[in-house]
Amino acid sequence: LLLEDEAEQPQFSDVPQSKQGLVLLEAAMLQPLPMDQLFSAPAAPYLLPILGETPSGEHPDPKKCSPREYLEFYIFPMVLPGLAALLQEAEKEKCFEGKRTKFIPSDFLTEWLYNNNPKRKDESFTELFSIPFVKDWLKDHPRPPIPLSLVLSEEEASLLIQSFWRGYRVRCDSEIQELRQWQKKLREERHITEVVKKFWTKQEAK
User: Fold this and answer.
1) What is the pTM (predicted TM-score) of this model?
2) What is the pLDDT averaged over residues 46-67?
3) Final residue in a domain of this structure, among 145, 163, 183
4) Is residue 3's pLDDT more than 70?
5) Are 134 and 110 in contact (CB under 8 A)?
6) Angle between helix 76-92 and helix 105-115 axes, rounded to 10 deg
7) End-to-end CA distance of the chain
């Protein structure tokens, strides 16, 4: 736009040479935009390919084709359906409803791509941690356990909280406190802990 209208742009004799470019840019930005170009019809949307489906025509040589051809013929037909399945699974896991979740997108996509590989179409489903290269990676890079707060469902977590609260209320009762003190004294006097330990040592020896 600046090159086409350069001859029509006014000359700023009183503006330093170092700032004339900025003045021309501001003048161009203040000009009204052509409405016919702004509201022109959008380009046709790119349709997600079905798994295994590639564009019509002969497959180009993957070692000699352009990056775009390589993506359209060899990458998109596999990766895009996998991403669509990933979004569906993320919705099932309620990833869009909270900040923390046990769902790991990279794990799901790795498992999905491995099992939907056309070279493995006649083989049985393989879980993520049974995939050979995943097992080799985890040997050298073991994962920390997933926090219990992410593993439990809301129903399971509510049951644990309610159970703990009921137990706490019972232990606060004066009679229960007296019973616990008597049991503690009995264990100390009769060395119950040592007796139990010796008992299990004999059982393991058998």
Assistant:
1) 0.52
2) 69
3) 145
4) no
5) yes
6) 130
7) 93
